[in-house]
Amino acid sequence: MDIKKIMIIGAGQMGAGIAQVFAQAGYEIILNDIKEEFVEKGISGIEKGMKRRIEKGKMEESVMNKTLSLISPSTNYSDAQNADLVIEAATENESIKLDIFKQLDEFAPEHTILATNTSSLSITKIAAATNRPDKVAGFHFFNPVPVMNLIEVNLALQTSNETKEALEELGKSIDKTVIIANDTPGFVVNRLLIPMINEAIFILESGTVTAESIDKAMELGANHPMGPLSLADLIGLDTVLAIMETLYKGFKDQKYRPSLLLTKYVEAGKLGRKTGEGFFKYD
Ligand code: CAA
Predict the structure, then answer these.
(1) 283: which of 76, 77, 158, 204 lies 20 to 30 Å off by Cα?
(2) pLDDT at 1 over 80
(3) pLDDT per residue over 33-61, tens digit each?
(4) What are phi and psi of 157, to 5 degrees?
């Protein structure tokens, strides 16, 4: 399948990152969000990140200009009529995603693949909300998208082999490594990673050790590039909680219960880097 034009739904940290890596590889991008200012914020974030690389001497200015010129803003789902692939990276909320997919299904041409960057929700259920379930799959990136080399292609019960192969090929075309996994809550990475972060929050809650020491322990004792609490702040505590709740609900197993302290941070609006404060503070 020939994929040239890609629409991305959601211009937050994941959506903007996905837009950047595809535009940098020469794909035409339609970057969509519900408000113009959200799209502008996403594009200016991409520009800021690329300017930092130019300053470090790691990127030519012409690469940035070409990349930005390939990204067109959108606030209308009807723009899916021009896309060969749509990647949805909206907020991690099932009813919002189901509604988006119903609308995309209406506007997108018959050949268009509708993919979701969901971190844990049921792709099978999302696929069933459309009239093209065979052309729906998970296409899951990791934060920060320009740095992290993995893509999980997650297959709904209905995903066709053709869709799987098209996404696998596309992921390779932007120099990422692709793994294929069937649709289960959290897929592979988040089923392992997020309970580890949740356990770190349980340890913090027990008051036996500081947040700094928990992170140091995993950086130096397990060679993780950053500690679990800093990583939670990077991912966003609302997303971490949403994934734990999906694991808990999906597997119906106590071992996935979210920590109360995590819930309290989310209720307080301390969501990590994106709000300036989570387990740590950010400028
Ligand atoms: N965008 C683009 N590039 C970035 C970046 C960003 N947001 N953040 C860092 N980088 C680049 C830097 O420019 C630098 O590049 P060069 O080496 O070419 O100069 C490189 O990454 C390393 O960055 P730093 O030196 O600033 O910092 P670091 O060495 O501490 O690395 C990190 C930062 C890459 C974030 C590293 O700490 C790391 O890998 N952390 C773990 C991240 C992780 O586990 N992500 C997965 C989260 S789970 C997820 O996303 C899935 C989900 O569904 C929730």
Answers:
(1) 204
(2) no
(3) 999 999 999 999 999 999 999 999 999 99
(4) -60, -30
Query: Ligand 1: does its nearest atom lie under 6 Å from the Cβ of 252?
Result: no
Nearest 5°: the CA angle 197, 242, 193 is 30
Q: Judge whether residue 120 has pLDDT over 90.
A: no
The closest-lying atom of ligand 1 relative to the alpha carbon of residue 146 is 2
Torsion of CA 89, 95, 101, 106, to 10 degrees: -140
CB 9 within 8 A of CB 87: yes
pTM for this prediction? 0.93
Q: Of ligand 1's atoms, which has the minimum distance to the CA of residue 52?
A: 13
Distance CA 108, CA 30 (A): 13
Determine the distance separating the centroid of ligand 1 and the alpha carbon of 144, expressed in angstroms: 5
Binding site membership of 260 for ligand 1 (Cβ less than 6 Å): no
**Count of CA atoms in the C-beta half-sphere (13 A) of 263:** 6
Question: Which of 32, 88, 92, 152 is flagged as catalytic?
Answer: 152
Q: Are 101 and 130 in contact (CB under 8 A)?
A: yes
Over residues 191-241, the pLDDT tens digits come to: 999 999 999 999 999 999 999 999 999 999 999 999 999 999 999 999 999
Ligand 1 contacts CB of residue 192 (under 6 A): no
Q: Ligand 1 centre and the CA of 20: distance in Å? A: 15
Choice among 119, 122, 198, 230 that is catalytic: 119
